[in-house]
Amino acid sequence: VNITRHEHPASPSDPGFALVEAEAALWRGVVVDMFGDEDLADGPLARWSEGSRPSYFQHVRYAARTDDGRVVGVGTLELPQRDNPHRAGMSIVVDPAFRNAGVGTSLHAAMLGEARRGGRRTFEAFTWEPLEPTGPRRLSGVEGDGVIDPDGEPAAFLLGLGYRLVQVETLSVLDLPAQADLDRDVAEARAVVPEEYSLVQWRGVTPAEWRSDMAELQVAMSTDVPMGDADAEPSVVDPERVRSADESFLAGGRDLLFTAARHDPTGRLVAFTRLVHEQGRPVADQWETLVVQAHRGHGLGLLTKTANHAAVPEAWPDVRRLITGNASENRWMLAINRRLGYRPVAACGWFEHRLETP
Ligand SMILES: CC(C)(COP(=O)(O)OP(=O)(O)OC[C@H]1O[C@@H](n2cnc3c(N)ncnc32)[C@H](O)[C@@H]1OP(=O)(O)O)[C@@H](O)C(=O)NCCC(=O)NCCS
User: How far, in Å, is the centroid of ligand 1 from the Cα of 130?
Assistant: First the structure.
């Protein structure tokens, strides 16, 4: 096979978008093989949009093609531009018929070379894993009790390249309850929250008046979430970055639903949660939930989350399931999710590889 380098296509109508489509199809195959459905598979437009803001994240792709031009492997290198100048994200997928023949290793070498030349020294990669490891051996992250099979295809691949497991994330699914049940959950959650907090909800791009509060909450999200011993710096986020991130979701055929909690005496947002939905799919992703430290312990996590869930049927009538991921050591968030009816279905391995010298 031949390995070639490709810039991120500037628009979905560029000829280069075909490679993003090929990549999305290969990843869809991975999740369907492992989990039997497409719930965890992002479509090509959503994938494309993640690289559509090169001033924040630059994406570069490497393609592995057979002599007759068929794409049998794709690697995407993600280079953060505003923070974490030492880090690079790696994602590699190879057609099952071409695995264990060195394609993944060649893609990785090409990406690593480019990243190193750009001064990057810490590399991260993620793997999909079954909820219960299939082989006899177990590998756990630096913290938490989540485990994966070190002899599984992707883990063995990354471990062989010098990566180590930082964290195991648990992915859970909730069959969206009926509206009456969702509303009851909100009422129960509201009953224990002090009156000085009120809820603010919006859909799509964050309104201008909340962007600076959301920027601070996003920075807290990059420091307060369990991260094992990952070599990562806090995100640098300003109101403009909040706007541009939200707009890139919409450009990628996705919609956003936010519920935040305002502390009325100060007028500031002190907690938020977000759901992401790709048009036409029966699932939505429950992303971050965060309560700033000074306001924890008042039930705001449960309240914002239940209120956001309760807004789903009206916003996205086709959604049947919600999916969420939590660090296996994040007991508090996992406990909330179990209580809401989420059931663990899959795991995700977060791997990191550090070079001593760039
Ligand atoms: C992980 C993946 C990209 C590897 O691609 P590949 O082309 O098969 O990789 P290579 O042929 O270069 O194999 C390199 C190493 O991977 C491991 N590996 C590959 N196939 C394996 C298998 N079937 N069982 C166990 N280990 C395997 C081995 O350690 C191998 O080294 P070795 O040949 O010295 O034993 C591929 O399996 C894949 O696409 N998986 C799904 C996508 C994914 O999970 N990607 C995660 C990384 S971002």
Answer: 16
